[in-house]
Design a protein that fits this description.
The complex is a heterodimer of chains A (about 250) and B (about 375). Chain A is of the alpha/beta class and about 250 residues long. Chain A has a single domain (about 25-245), classed as Thiamin diphosphate (ThDP)-binding fold, Pyr/PP domains (Rossmann fold, 3-Layer(aba) Sandwich), CATH 3.40.50. Chain A is about 40% helix and about 15% strand. Chain A has helices at about 25-40, 55-60, 70-80, 95-100, 100-110, 150-155, 160-165, 180-200, 215, 220-235, and strands at about 45-50, 65, 85-95, 115-120, 125, 130, 170-175, 205-210, 240-245. In chain A, the strands form two sheets. Chain A has a seven-stranded mixed beta sheet with strand order 2-1-3-4-8-7-9, sandwiched between helices. Chain A has a two-stranded antiparallel sheet with strand order 5-6. In chain A, helix 1 crosses helix 8 (about 180-200). In chain A, about 55% of the residues are buried. Chain B is of the alpha/beta class. Chain B contains twelve helices and 15 strands. Chain B has helices spanning about 15-25, 45-55, 65-75, 90-105, 130-135, 150-170, 180-185, 225-245, 265-280, 300-305, 320-330, 350-360; strands at about 15, 30-35, 60, 80-85, 110-115, 145, 170-180, 185-190, 215-220, 250, 260, 285-290, 290-295, 310-315, 335-340. In chain B, strands 3-2-4-5-7-6-13 form a seven-stranded mixed beta sheet, sandwiched between helices. Chain B has a five-stranded mixed beta sheet with strand order 10-12-11-14-15, with helices on both faces. The relative contact order of chain B is 0.13. The chains are: A alpha/beta (about 250), B alpha/beta (about 375). The interface of A and B includes residues 58, 80, 81 and 82 of A. Strand 2 of chain A pairs parallel with strand 9 (about 215-220) of chain B, so a sheet runs across the interface.
Chain lengths: ~250, ~375
């Protein structure tokens, strides 16, 4: 009998150091599977952010660069402009993409730079110990919202797909989740579509992934997966926010 | 390829400093520019916004200085000669990215056309960013090579030198000029041949897709202290090689000088007038002009101090390079200082008056402050 499940070629043998139940490892694997299936490993350059996934460069078996906090979309712009033959993806968390790097994200999107952003939304700062993220939901507790996020003090969360969909530049924006098997399969389809759009040279693509963070949320992994359904996807509805490939 | 070349080598052309710098960068192989408007350097992006497309390059007016420098990070990581430019506060915003690029050991070129500071300051020429430039500028232990032109010809030719040094040492290299050098027009000529970027030596450290080789990682995170320490000592060794090999300076009337003015860039140009006028009056005054501000010509100034007992440092700031001169001189000569901060310029006569005043008094070991 042949093997039907194995490690993607685009992943290294290094064991991931993520917490049990973390969504990053699933997202990493999905990207690697898509790179394998599209046969673009030898043309791919990935961008690792600052945050829990700063070690992405150890896990992906393709050329990688780790850039300053929030600047993935700027560095990706430079790379793709001078080497349009490369397949560039920027992997960023919510603090990276929607707080410190908001300007870089919006402007790369509005210029419709032809690269792919994988945006991990877990509503919290994982690496620094569970502080408020720009995507922390009203009432959600973090180490800097010990009584829950109070919108009168901290403002409302940023809904990235909704915000970017108001721009003319983005080609494809979809929000998915990696908390159960059907959602993981949908997430993979979205990632593959985003990479294909880049291969076709059409422009800016972003896939937002709602991702469980049991450690940051202070719950067991099973509860974290349920929380994505019960709380997160109510506030951040899953679905396609923009798809210009269907026009024409 | 030939028709891309706008000017022949050695051809006399009348150009603005900022435009000479921009054309010089293109001529030296620059194929990507990103930047954000700020006076007094706007002619650089304005020129490149059309010129760089003529040679098959790309221009982006970025959303911020921070975005610009990080675009350059990506461009340098792909092995392409990229450039950014700014002034004062804009360079402050770029420092985070410059630190990353220095740590990643990627080559690129940038220019600071200094304006008055601190804060928003003003748009007049100044030399107040000397400390920022020569000490690295951002966080962490690192250095950038700093070239200080004093003419439009040097503005046009230093980008080539900067790219070559950057490539040679895999290090950022900057031109530190000011609003006067950027804005003024004078005849200039390029002293180097058109560079075809496709013919530059290949780089084995860039990310190009891992076809036919193991993957490459460009990374500035070293979680284990012993590994980061090793990386720091590796950078230190490189900086030492740069200090040994790349010091550049120029001297004028030093042989019989009783007093030597030490100045760079615009203040060196102004001081030249003082030297010419002083010599006509029979005053034995010379000029020492550092061309590389880092590496600083420590040894040459130290040797100069063996025979010249009076030095006058002239700067358009409150006194920054004067500290490097003090270190270089090690107490062997008296150091005097004439400074005009805030976007003001000294005049040649003002410098000469100071020279005459110093010569009228006995040499004092204490550095004299103020104008």
């Amino acid at each position: 009998m042949g093997r039907i499940y194995k490690k993607p070629v685009s992943m290294t043998k290094i064991a991931m150091r993520y917490c049990p139940g973390c969504g990053h490892s699933i997202a990493h694997r999905l990207i690697a599977e898509v790179i394998d299936e599209l046969d673009i490993r030898e043309r791919a350059v990935g961008i690792a952010p600052v945050g829990c996934s700063v070690f992405l460069d150890e896990y992906m078996d393709c050329d990688m660069i780790q850039v300053p906090h929030g600047r993935g979309c700027a560095s990706a712009t430079g790379m793709k402009r001078v080497r349009p033959d490369l397949i560039v993806f920027s992997y960023q968390g919510d603090g990276d993409l929607a707080a410190i790097g908001t300007a870089e994200t919006i402007h790369a999107a509005t210029r419709s730079e032809n690269f792919t952003v994988i945006f991990i939304n877990n509503a919290i700062y994982g690496m620094t110990g569970g502080q408020q993220a720009p995507t922390t939901m009203p009432g959600q507790k973090t180490t800097t919202n010990p009584y829950g996020r109070e919108v009168k003090v901290h403002g409302y969360p940023i809904k990235v797909c909704e915000m970017l969909s108001a721009l003319d530049g983005p080609i494809y924006l979809e929000r998915v989740a990696v908390n159960n098997v059907p959602n993981v399969l949908k997430a993979k389809r979205a990632i593959k579509k985003a990479f294909q759009i880049q291969l076709d040279g059409l422009g800016f693509t972003l896939v937002e992934i709602l991702s469980p963070c049991p450690t940051g949320w202070g719950v067991i992994p099973k509860k974290a997966c349920e929380y994505v359904d019960e709380k997160m996807s109510k506030y951040y509805p899953l679905g396609v926010y923009k798809d210009l490939t269907k026009k024409k | 390829m030939k028709n891309m070349e706008k000017y022949k080598m050695g051809e006399k052309v009348l150009m603005k400093g900022n435009e000479a710098l921009a054309e010089g960068a293109v001529r030296a192989g620059c194929r990507f520019f990103a930047g954000y408007p700020i006076t007094p350097q706007n002619e650089i992006p304005e020129y490149l916004s059309w010129r760089i497309f003529e040679v098959g390059g790309t221009f982006i007016q970025s959303e911020s200085e921070i975005a610009a420098i990080n675009m350059i990070f990506g461009v340098a990581a792909c092995g392409v000669r990229g450039m950014t430019s700014s002034s004062g506060c804009g360079i402050s915003l770029k420092q985070e990215g410059i630190s990353y690029i220095a740590s990643a050991e990627l080559p690129f070129f940038y220019a600071n056309i200094i304006r008055g500071g601190p804060g928003l300051g003003n748009i007049a020429p100044a030399q107040s960013d000397y400390f920022q430039a020569t000490r690295g500028g951002g966080h962490g232990d690192y250095r950038v090579i700093v070239l200080a032109p004093n003419s439009v010809t040097e503005m046009g030719n230093f980008p080539k030198l900067a790219y070559d040094l950057a490539d040679k040492y895999r290090n950022p290299c900057m031109v530190l000029a000011d609003g006067l050098l950027g804005q003024m027009m004078e005849p200039m000529e390029f002293n180097f041949d058109w560079v075809d970027p496709d013919k530059l030596p290949p780089k084995d450290y860039i990310v190009t897709g891992c076809k036919g080789r193991p993957r490459r990682i460009i990374n500035t995170l070293h979680m284990i202290p012993s590994i980061l320490e090793k990386h720091n000592w590796h950078l230190y060794e490189k900086y030492q090689r740069i200090e040994e090999n790349e010091v550049r300076f120029e001297g004028c009337n030093l042989e019989d000088a009783e007093i030597v003015i030490v100045a760079y860039g615009t203040s060196a140009r102004i001081s030249t007038e003082a030297v010419i006028k002083g010599r006509k009056k029979g005053i034995k005054v010379g000029l020492f002009r550092p061309i590389t501000l880092w590496p600083f010509p420590k040894k040459a100034i130290n040797e100069l101090a063996d025979r010249v007992k009076k030095l006058l440092v002239v700067e358009m700031n409150m006194g920054q390079m004067v500290e490097d001169v003090e270190i270089a001189v090690s107490g062997k000569s008296a150091i005097h200082f004439l400074g005009r901060p805030g976007g003001s310029l000294p005049t040649g006569d003002e410098v000469l008056d100071k020279v005459e005043e110093i010569l009228s008094k006995p040499a004092s070991p204490e550095r004299e402050r103020g104008k």
